[in-house]
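INFO batch 0412 | record 1 of 1 | parsing
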Amino acid sequence: MAGNKYQIDFSAADSRLYSRLFPRQISTIPQGRQNDPLLNASDSTSVESLAPESLALGQIVPFEFRISVDSAGTVTGDTISFTAGWDTVTTNGGLFGYDRNLGVIAAFVDASDPSTRKDTNATISNFSWSLVGTEIQANFKLANLDPGEEVVVEAWVVLQDKIPVTTTGNVQSRLISAKTAGTINAGNTINTGSQTIPLQRVREFWNNQGEYANRAKFDSGTFNVDASGQVEFDYLYDGGWFQGELAVFSLKGMGNYQPGSEAFLTEATARALSNSKQGRILMSDRSEGARFSDKVAWENNFNIDAAKYAGVQSFEMEAGDELAFMLVQNTTVQDIYQNPKSTSQWGKSVLFSTDTNQIASLDGKGTLAFEDVLVKMVVQTVIIMIWFFR
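INFO prediction complete | emitting tokens
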């Protein structure tokens, strides 16, 4: 009996269309057969290359495999296996790529993908991965294939969460090989051609998430929460000697307090300490490190706790609320809450983003910088803290 004939198309989901997802946000790993666990990650809108503009360091990146079974085939319930690879370094040898420690974290048939045709029960029955040189190589076994079907398999890999500033080049991924693996004509090679999906111009990750450029002031220094209520924070760069804390708080009802007054300060710090939709502490410099540790031309690198970088934080605020940032210089929010009259002492100033001299947008896309000294007190402003917020 002749076996089935197969075609496999390899692509990446369009990162402009699906929400950013990080490994720590997953409570259950999708496997086997699923229905669009990452909404809008789809073969039907997939792309042949990726770019940093719509990606974040440390996020999950979904790739798509569309398997077409020739309608003239005679084998039902057939099985194939295929192998793909994702580089952990760039084409120039840069130390950045897909995370070699996490490898492929999920693989499944996406039964609800719009490209699916006649598929009723195809499933990923098994997959495994290993590091071969500098490439993550994963083998997937796809079962229950019938003639005339089109089946979409989605695999998740993860971008490294750090990138050296000087890194250049592309990061490649590729479809390596495929073969039949069922009871009829097992081991027959499936022609996959040469299919690669490059992540291009990786140096732009630094441009998007920390480069000192395009310093534009905010009109208000406040920020509105979108309808989802979800907010992300990533501490990118520490360029200041002070070891203080950065907090965010809701401005809802703050109009009842005179800005700069002790009552305003007490309420703002109380909200920041509540760890709720009213506010929270985003970063404590005494116990946390920033993502980037490279020394830049305009400032020393003070990131002495780089190993304690906490990664991207995701949390919920009230949809539609207006938020502001608060930076306490060389102490804690708790200390200021308990001793609001101490802010005139050295190292205990509290700076708010509502003073637009203190804060700047570096890229217009959520990368923000803060000066930890009152700007009118210094001759030359040097940005000392950079973070990503959206």
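INFO post-check: The mean pLDDT is 84.
INFO record closed
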